[in-house]
# Entry
Amino acid sequence: MRGNENKQQPVFSYVSLEERVPADHPLRAIRQTVDEILAQMSARFDSFYAATGRPSIPPERLLRALLLQVFFSVRSERMLMQQLDYNLLFRWFAGLEIDEPVWNHAVFSKNRDRLLNEELAREFFALVLERAQAHLSKEHFTVDGTLIEAWASHKSFQRKDGGTGDGGNFHGQERKNDTHASRTDPDAKLYRKSNGSEAKLSYLGHVMVENRNGLIVEAMVTEADGKAEADAALLMAQHRQAQRPGGRITLGADKAYDQGELVRTLREMEVTPHVAQNNARRRSAIDRRTTRHEGYAISQRKRPLIEKVFGWLKPIGGLKKVKLRGLEKVGWLFQFAAAAFNLWRIPKLQAAA
# Structure
């Protein structure tokens, strides 16, 4: 018998959002972990707000909404608010009741910019990492960098002395970071990742992963230049080495890190450089002292784990081309996306344990 479509709208609903979300949904374990972390950060949030005045968006809801934006590749705050308006899963995760109004996208962006900075994002990242300790290697790591395209056009890259060329036509002109800067994002630098590739206004994102499961243990953003990858590798290795006083760690990397000064400095820091050898028309800084050990071959086999991280952060995490401007804002976004990657991976590792 065919059922009749009932056009009458019910006055009340007695089904909660909690019942709408399946018990085995992947976001349930993530939501539990996030709630524990946000409870730890509650006192920290208090320092960002005045005791009086109009209540703002609760920071816990704001951060959970931002995690949804990363997890589901929502490309703008306007679209995120649309999803929160009609998507029951999004409402449940963010902490909104079914009949609660969503925020204006401009108000949401303003609250986000006031709350979030690189220091707070780093604290959130560290608390996420604490929950992954059982799945981390404490001594074997891999480092690499990736190009992050800035939210600035080539036409904004103009002379610092005020000249703009012939009506904005830059054909035939030599443009360098020493003499030119972007008018819309001065921190972005003109940079090409490799010979023959297009130069773009960019930042460099740097990641260190542990070699057991490929979880991110360090993440940072720098201006794009030829020395940034080596400098970032040293900073991240120094921070990891500080976690093991008196013990050595290994650091895998690709051929771009096969630099004499970098390798010497790592060894002085008691970090064993498991860097891929670059023997193309030169002598590698990595010799038999390193390559003869079995651990070197293992590090090289584990090194591709870091490519999976970039394969998630850039297309899914929204870092292929950032929609924020300035090194500080791009830095907190990168830290936050790295924390989101770990949050997504931890429940899967726990289930497999």
Remarks:
- The domain at 137-157+180-323 is CATH 3.30.420 (Nucleotidyltransferase; domain 5).
